[in-house]
Amino acid sequence: MSEFILARQNGRTIPKEDRIFGISNRAKAAIAEKGRDKVVNGTIGALLDDEGGLVVLQSVDEVFRQLEPNDYAEYAPIGGTAPFREAVKKAAFGDHVPEGFIEAVATPGGTGSLRNVISNYSEPGDSVLTSDWHWAPYGTIAGEIGRKVAVFEMFTKDREFNVGSFRAKCSELLAVQNSLVIILNTPAHNPTGYSLTLEDWDAVIDVLKDEAAGGKAIALLVDAAYIDFAGDEEEYRRFIPKLSALPENVLSIVAYSLSKTFTLYGARCGAMICVAKTPEIAAEFRRVCEYSSRGSWSNTARIAQVILSRIYSDSELLEKVNAERKKYRDMLAARGRAFGEAAAECGLEIVPYDAGFFVSVPCDDPDAVSRRLEEQDVFLVPLAKGIRVSVASIPESACRRIPPMIKAAL
Ligand SMILES: Cc1ncc(COP(=O)(O)O)c(C=O)c1O
Description:
2 domains, 12 strands, Aspartate Aminotransferase, domain 2
């Protein structure tokens, strides 16, 4: 039976309030009442400075301020402007351009790429495979278009990437579906901060080669939303050429986002970039994804496309942007390290963390733990298997202070 008055349920469970925004609002109210230094708001998925202000790259803002009206007022082509489509391939791949036929389609953030991949490379009713620790909107995006999310266990008991579980789930789903979409969010995974190692990647590629032998279509979506906040940009792109080893019936697609990399969260821009074995598969990718864009958001906002194209047409400007980002990435890395050290000192177990915006703490009753922490003005996000701490949104001092509090709350 539907819980709605006039709206249709359509198989979805729609909460009255977005959980994360609810906690975040309580955190903001606590800050207003007691002061910023008394409250830890570790719920926000954006990089904040130590004073709680949104980090905006000044070098990107300067480009923004030089725009002419036509740069933002005019419609962009459905698949993105030609300079953007070239620039975004450079931004996504850096020096690690994979072999194959590459096409880029502009999307409103990485979110748009996720939606278009699921709608074009799976069938209604299918399950899309991702890890048990994952960004909750994967389920929302899949559910909106009549798909579900199935999960493999991300880690073994020895805290390594669980290739065995990945293999088992791929086989299980391919036995009952005509095709399979797989989402791997790496590097600097949300919510754990894990980055697949090059060895993990070799193992993933081996599994996919084996699974593809049955001839079914597989789409591997690499959600690279945090790739430029993982560590050295080139080092963290070394896995990309490995995608070229996949056979014809496995299409890899990188979901690249300008939200974090260029601090353009609200400008809603990203791209889905395929690495295909044949020109026909690449052309089909562009055709079906542009069609889906037309039928959902139409075209992507032009403004961020122009900004990215400008940055990539001026090597000095690009260097300036990269240098500025590095400063903030180092700040983020110091916070992650501080949290890890404080956790080790007090014996708090965390999920394997490499880099990025979030650290996760496994626990049995995340809601109860988060409630207990809220009573002490520490606001974190309860997930299915633990608690997520956004080190991106709290200062290093808080990263050192809260692990013993979490330990006590457990
Ligand atoms: C794991 C993950 N993927 C994708 C995104 C997409 O963000 P956007 O649509 O702003 O690019 C986010 C944003 O928080 C994310 O955490």
